[in-house]
């Protein structure tokens, strides 16, 4: 039986993930769905945001639907997201940004770089070690090359090799792998790339870059489609997979029924595609499109519908589509 872990997390995760969860259950009532409670709220209650038993539970799932977690700026607080990514070795973060006229997939290295977790804080200086390894770089660019082979076959390497020696290392390995694979490629400085994606999004297919650069450039690119509330992501490893909206926990709007559930729904669609149900993924996307075309929109994209009103409309549209299995 297919097992899906449901992690609402913190903040608006408690509002958007139930909508996406219901969409999955509507399409696949036969799946085994089980909750896993991690995040800042869990830490406030127990003193532990993510226990070893939680990691073990996630490893029993065929896929994880993940909401958002709050990471407070505290010295002794371990990021739940970083811990899960490392524990499940989810080294490839795939962030699609597409609309009429462009279809970009940002492939972000997900386990090292500035988020390696190797840090020191002293009275006069704080130091974060940026780790760019040959193994980490080879496997992320190979993942990007595989993605490019399934799409338009064009790869862009984003880096800051004019300043950072570790990015010279990253760029050169990426170029060598692209040449060995015979894939069309170019490379750009990450700051120039950020601007050019906004100006000429149709020129890009697959973009591969390091951890923090991928985090930033995918957030910037979300402007092209209406903001973070619409952009999903996949965290993929050789064994495990986790799917989450790109947005954070947004504590300032949590509990107000105004969060946009589209990114969570699209993350659920990516989950289905990953485990082999491409038709189900397309049905979720079609239902979202039907609701938007009908004029039902959340506040962030110019409407007045709440999280649940929009979600219910999507579920109704999804239920009206014939089940093709």
Protein model, in words:
41% of the residues lie in helices and 20% in strands. By secondary structure, it is an alpha/beta fold. It folds into two domains: 1-90 and 238-325, Isopropylmalate Dehydrogenase, CATH 3.40.718; 91-236, Isopropylmalate Dehydrogenase, CATH 3.40.718.10. The strands form two sheets. Strands 2-1-3-12-11-4-5-10-8-9 form a ten-stranded mixed beta sheet, with helices on both faces. The chain has a two-stranded antiparallel ribbon with strand order 6-7. The longest helix is centred in the middle third of the chain and has 17 residues, at 165-181. The two termini are 17 Å apart. The model has no long low-confidence stretch (mean pLDDT 94). InterPro entries: IsoCit/isopropylmalate_DH_CS (IPR019818), IsoPropMal-DH-like_dom (IPR024084). One of its GO terms (molecular function) is magnesium ion binding. Keywords: Oxidoreductase.
- Give the beta-strand count: 12
Indicate the proportion of strand residues: 15-25%
CATH topology of the largest domain: Isopropylmalate Dehydrogenase
Q: Low-confidence stretches at least 5 residues in length (pLDDT < 50)?
A: none
**What would CATH call the architecture of the largest domain?**
3-Layer(aba) Sandwich
SS-based class: alpha/beta
Q: Class of the largest domain in CATH?
A: Alpha Beta
Overall mean pLDDT stands at: 94
Reported for the largest beta sheet, the result is: 10 strands, mixed
**Gross geometry:** globular
Q: Provide the domain count.
A: 2
CATH superfamily of the largest domain: Isopropylmalate Dehydrogenase
Element-by-element helix/strand order: EHEHHEHEEEEHEHEHEHEEHHH
Number of helices: 11
Percent range of helical residues? 40-55%
Strand order of the largest sheet: 2-1-3-12-11-4-5-10-8-9
